[in-house]
Amino acid sequence: MKELIGAWKLLFITNSTVQGPNPIGRIVFTPSGYMNAMVIDGDKAATFKNETTWRNSSDVQMATLVRPIVAYSGPYRVEKIGKDIFTHVNVEVSISPEWIGTDQVRRAEFGKKDGKSLLTLFPFFTVSLLLHAL
């Protein structure tokens, strides 16, 4: 599905307390069938931005920053059932070990707003992502 291919910038997440009120994220779908996604808590990242590096941070500082990150990648396929479009990602790499080897399924909707392409992904829980093409 050509509409899905590209780099998408996260606009917002509904019903998420994990990534905070100002999440930052990107998701990329390649033409060769591979995807990569990462979402972080923008407020926590900004707090550490100028003071803390991986090398000089404490374990507590890193846990505070890293624990809310969602990051995963793997090959994907697209399936159309009636009018619904689903992406299935076979997770090969994830910051959450329990996701590795799982099939993450999202229902996708496409739209346009202010001349920008929009992609909304609906997981099988109460979080949805709204992204626009970069």
Layout of secondary structure:
Layout: E1 6-13, E2 23-29, E3 34-41, H1 42-48, H2 59-66, E4 70-81, E5 84-90, E6 93-94, E7 103-113, E8 116-123, E9 129-133
Antiparallel strand pairs: 1-2, 1-9, 2-3, 3-4, 4-5, 4-6, 5-7, 7-8, 8-9
What can you see in these coordinates?
This protein has 134 residues and is mainly β. Helix content is 11%, strand content 51%. It has one domain (6-133): Beta Barrel (Lipocalin), CATH 2.40.128. An eight-stranded antiparallel β-barrel has the order 1-2-3-4-5-7-8-9. Strand 4 (70-81) and strand 5 form a beta hairpin.
Radius of gyration: 16 Å
* Second-tier CATH architecture: Beta Barrel
Tally of strands: 9
Please work out how many helical segments DSSP would assign.
2
Order of helices and strands: EEEHHEEEEEE
For the largest sheet, list the strands in their spatial order.
1-2-3-4-5-7-8-9
Distance between the termini: 18 Å
Q: Segments where pLDDT lies below 50 for 5+ residues?
A: none
Helix content: 10-25%
Mean pLDDT: 83
Domain count: the total is 1
Structural class: mainly beta
The main pleated sheet reads as: 8 strands, antiparallel, barrel
Strand content bin = over 45%
Keywords, please?
11% helix, eight-stranded antiparallel barrel, Lipocalin, mainly beta, 134 residues
Quick recap:
The protein is mainly beta and 134 residues long.
